[in-house]
């Protein structure tokens, strides 16, 4: 695997489903997983097998139908969780177990009530046991954003030694600033020296999930965990469509770096999720919001008419929007000033009033 590929790990069916109002039936999950496979995501986190019999069934059915993506189940660092994960993904062509434990002082003391030494022991046992089911084991250090660097290094060395191939650094509570997170990732990438892939998993509590993920990529992370439309626990996760389109749009910055995402499937995947959950992305949501490609101001319409690149850094068709209905004739438009010309250029005009 080239070091220039950023693996996209989609967790819409696991962390995304933890959004209030985003529960899906087993059939809906299967349909969505097939679309994620078409979108080209490298890993589909299909659920948390031990969470419920329904989760287990969804993961095992998804494992049978997904053709290219790796299918993954989450598991706490607990034997029974790992066993259920291993059994749920057994029929997948490519399979991964993702196990985790919290590493921040606040989580270890108040939630786990475990000493750092006990946490390391449990992590190592979890990875060793997961390796009895699959070769591909990911280990996450929950709340890594608020964990101490010395302890992160200690536990990372131990789980790599135990057989983890991907080390995920979550900013579980969306607390870190991009420069802090970037520095943390740089130090950890240098520390693991290619013995494992460093992954990131950023939450959006301060609106920084995408910025933090991108900063991590600039500092050597080679897997990004994200969700369609940015859904997820509380304020959500980094949005897959934003991460993928930033990397593809800013080739001047990410020259050699690529994802395997098939951009033309982005819009369709976003719409499928909305049709399943009934939850629309906010209208001004980057990339997939209803207004993401809409021009209302007359000055902007004039610019687009003269040269599309004046106000469009991404073309709607790049993400698979077939009908470009991006021109809104409203009170800021100089009313119908450019209507005929815009129609000739293929824009579908939307009269606001
Ligand atoms: O936010 C988080 O820390 C998680 C882990 C389970 C990866 O979702
Ligand atoms: Zn999460």
Describe what this molecule looks like in 3D:
The protein is built from twelve helices and ten strands. By secondary structure, the protein is of the alpha/beta class. It has an eight-stranded parallel barrel with strand order 1-2-3-4-5-6-7-8, surrounded by nine helices. Strands 9-10 form a two-stranded parallel ribbon. The longest helix has 15 residues, at 116-130. Bound molecules: 3-methyl-2-oxobutanoic acid (KIV) and zinc ion. 3-methyl-2-oxobutanoic acid binds next to strand 5 and strand 6. Zinc ion binds next to loops.
Q: Secondary-structure map with pairings?
A:
Layout: E1 7-10, H1 26-39, E2 43-47, H2 53-65, E3 70-76, H3 79-88, E4 95-102, H4 105-112, H5 116-130, E5 137-142, H6 149-162, E6 166-171, H7 178-192, E7 197-202, H8 209-218, E8 223-226, H9 240-249, H10 266-277, H11 298-306, E9 327-329, H12 339-344, E10 349-351
Helix pairs in contact: 1-2, 1-10, 2-3, 5-6, 6-7, 7-8
The structure holds 3-methyl-2-oxobutanoic acid and zinc ion.
Q: Regions with pLDDT < 50 over 5+ consecutive residues?
A: none
Give the SSE string: EHEHEHEHHEHEHEHEHHHEHE
Instruction: Determine the oligomeric state from the structure.
Output: single chain
| Coarse morphology | globular
Secondary-structure content class: alpha/beta
* Span between termini: 53 Å
Indicate the mean pLDDT: 94
The set of bound ligands, ions and cofactors reads: 3-methyl-2-oxobutanoic acid, zinc ion
What is the count of β-strands?
10
Helix coverage percent: 25-40%
Strand order of the largest sheet: 1-2-3-4-5-6-7-8
Q: What can be said about the biggest beta sheet?
A: 8 strands, parallel, barrel
